[in-house]
Amino acid sequence: MAVIDVEISEVGPRDGLQSIQPIMATAAKKAWIDAEAAAGVREIEVGSFVPASLLPQLADTTELVAHARTIPGLKVAVLVPNFRGAEAAIAAGAHKITIPLSVSETHSLKNVRRTHAQMFEEVARIAALIKSLPAAQRPHFEGGLSTAFGCTLEGVISTRQVVTAAEQLMAAGCDEVGLSDTTGYADPRAVRVLTQAVWAAVGRDKLTGIHLHNTRGQGLACALAAVELGLFTVDASLGGIGGCPFAPGASGNIVTEDLVFMLEAMGLSTGIDLEQLLKVREIVRAALPAEVELYGFTAAAGLPKGFRAASVTA
Amino acid sequence: MAVIDVEISEVGPRDGLQSIQPIMATAAKKAWIDAEAAAGVREIEVGSFVPASLLPQLADTTELVAHARTIPGLKVAVLVPNFRGAEAAIAAGAHKITIPLSVSETHSLKNVRRTHAQMFEEVARIAALIKSLPAAQRPHFEGGLSTAFGCTLEGVISTRQVVTAAEQLMAAGCDEVGLSDTTGYADPRAVRVLTQAVWAAVGRDKLTGIHLHNTRGQGLACALAAVELGLFTVDASLGGIGGCPFAPGASGNIVTEDLVFMLEAMGLSTGIDLEQLLKVREIVRAALPAEVELYGFTAAAGLPKGFRAASVTA
Lengths: 314, 314
What we know:
The structure is a homodimer. By secondary structure, chain A is of the alpha/beta class.
């Protein structure tokens, strides 16, 4: 595969679908994953190992991991809330496992009813399980720093809190940490400040990705700051699916198509064929009820006349 | 007035209103201008001196200039298509006059039925008229480089074309040029490349502002690039009014509120009270039929808990 400048991690099948009521058929999810991988996307978060009673939308994650693993070169990522989820993820064969930790302990208690100490214990158990596996079977284990840019309950989260949480996640056995703007509070300066602070604490190679929301329209500006600072992986969701519960009419995650357009227009290769990616919307559109909105400026406006993407297209 | 880091030029009353069918009442426009100035906006493009037969939405520009001039400290800007418009703008007392030049000559011919040579002649006549005025009455005269980032007819516009047009506008007597992404083709890298090329040709003090569209969702990312490179004035439209004819559901201009949020969150002072600015939407909402959409992520989501703006608020 060609060398790329920025890796897009498609999180629509997980973060997008968990945020909407309708349940997408497993066959449609597979077609979506196939089509995005064919367009050149190299990492897809296909689901989450949470009890089906909590998130019936993601109940087929085991099947999706198995399917996605058959696609050559695709990194298959999943989210897990706890040790039990990690066990299931490992059994399914996920390449990358992310456990989110709310840097805001108030949020953590409210959201997963766990203190930080309890979460770090869970992380350590997962790390030990992973270490017990043969090297070739070990998934990459990431600790997601949720609410890193601010919390809807606590408000401002200090850089110190984020750095401490990052250090503790690494100490508990994560391979890497990731910054996550769960609440859409980030701005480009905050992205730089936090990234550099975490780098200084745990090492530059231990924080390479960021998860941004577009709640206040700052998604692409934050992604620009992140990528130009040197973060490699940026999460995004096709069609911005999932919306934002706090902002009617606003997309939740960054729209994958708009992010790819920005990077490719700037001459940064994502390895993704943008025209092909835009066509994947049709699969998603057809697989969801009409009341689920698909977002995306680039899809609405079309590509500029004479547009040349950085990635060589087939 | 306090020193600011970035100047926002509100172009909604001109660019926004000219793009929609309904005509806003003059009293409502005045209330809008008053409220934005009260919120701290220091430059407002209040209208355009085009024949009322072409743009009845802006037929009251003379009255608006007179009104806006009574607001202490407010820079009153207008657009003019030609010499006759400039005469009217000067008679009305505008502080700043912008004449747009389509860098794409195809676009210029189609849009205003004028070659570049004819446009530069028009610019020279306006410059001579301004020079004939007593120094205190001379408006600032800007040449807007429209379609600078690409043209819906010609496609790619080369950096050379933009630089040449900038040089010719300055030679014809403009005080300054401005970059304008009429078509929503810009990306952050292109903003940097073009700005630096024009700076190299005409001097850094002769290009200080940029007009961006959000057609492909790149508005704020481009604004970030522009501001961090050192451009001082960024155009934006309250509620992103006007939409984008090419992209249903997409705002045309950058949304003023989202831009101010980004800058203030980053610690860059705009002199604008963001909460007060958000309230101005009510005036605009009430003055337009319900079918005219108002955009804005920040308005939809609200300000983050514990948010502190860079500008000291009253």
